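PT: before anyone asks, these are the final sequences, not the draft ones from last week. 490 residues across everything. Please model them as a single complex and drop the result in this thread when it's through.
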Amino acid sequence: MRATLDGEVVINLEPVFGYLHRGIEKLAEERTYTGFVPLTDRLDYVASMSNNFGYCLAVEKLAGIKVPERGEYIRVIMAELQRIAAHLISVGSFLNDSGAYFTPFLLMFRERERIIDLFEMACGQRLLYNYYRPGGVSQDVPKEFFPALKELLKQLPGYVDEYEQLLKENEILMARAKGVGILPKEMAINIGASGPTLRAAGVKWDIRKADPYSIYDRFEFDIPVGVQGDCYDRYRVRMEEIKQSLRILEQAIKQTPEKGPVRAEVPQLIRPPVGECYAHIEAPTGELGFYLVSDGSIAPYRCHIRAPSLMNLTALRDMMLGWKIQDLIIIFGSFAITMGEIDR
Amino acid sequence: MTKTLSAGEVVKQVAVKFPGAATVLNDFAVLVDSKSLRDVMAFLKTTPGLDFNYMTTITAIDYFQYFEVAYNLVSMEHNHSLTVKARTPREVASLPSVISLWRAADYQEREIYDLMGITFEGHPNMKRIVLWPEFSGHPLRKDFLK
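LR: through. Structure below.
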């Protein structure tokens, strides 16, 4: 990001990308459909599970694979846990940027750690999970997973209340974030913003409701929306989404079948019929989409990734002009972008 | 559930105003003549009943003889979606920009220019986005087959 200042006021701004460009879309063309899953981890690296999810959905749509029930539930549970973990990092680093130096951040890492422990139980990894597969997940969760998850779900609401008590009506946070960096509703839609950024602007649009994928039509949850689309609203929407994710998790645990396969019988080398498809999910940052083109071979002919963070940044310049350099950091922090996803 | 509009129905509506500009490519995709791309897109965005106010993504695909660019559009009001496609020859890879309709096209068109080498006419800032300016070639093209 290159900013031109007049004293403390931002008069021009140009986002500069590319420092993390690894050519992931091109790499997809040389890998098998399953072999590309670990690379999707490296897009939004704080929400690897969601990336796996979006990609696997696209392959399943293209190849017509149906996921077994237990597999579907485990996927949704992982995706929602991932949403909570990613939102905790987003909110934590936003507060870090706004001057609450590391206290809330480390509090939130305490809970994130518990979620990461659950992921480690399921797949052995703590950051880049590589857990989903076209047709299900790589392996069933161990038997101690569900008791540990239930235990965590008992404690998480208390932790969330703790942050709310600390921060929700915190005077300093309100003074710095309220009314700052407003993204109006029309502009949010026009720039293709998605996720908490779009919903903070007051648009009730969540892919889980608008175009339910997987088994999201079986759960009851609300879509939190903001009032005016400022930094405070974006923070609020994330906190409310954590609560909604907890609701989904409660329901998912009750509905998960005790036994059953977690992965459909899929050939080692998937050869989808010639064609193309677009599949999207509601990732923590927004609408993550995969546009896959198949030529009938074992590797995708083209794999385009719609990165929500990139689209959310489109209006960055408009939102920052005229604000002071201190606000610039808060506005930027409120988007909770991941560079790995923007540059791909 | 987002409803995928049938390409035939949309082509019929477009043909009333722009005869011959749009053709049915398959069940879900409409192929638009690259010269009238911006007009047809404006029609899709503003016509009541279609109201495609949200542009999801733009994908460029290299088919050796030509480039194909797929635009995924969504209407939040009616919750329906459509894929619009345009083609451009490899030698003079160029398409009109739709940035005046959806600013969502801004970075995506730049990215396609950078990685696939398609110029978008009318884009105010058509320069490389992820690679450095001196880089030669366009990595996503199928020029590098073993």
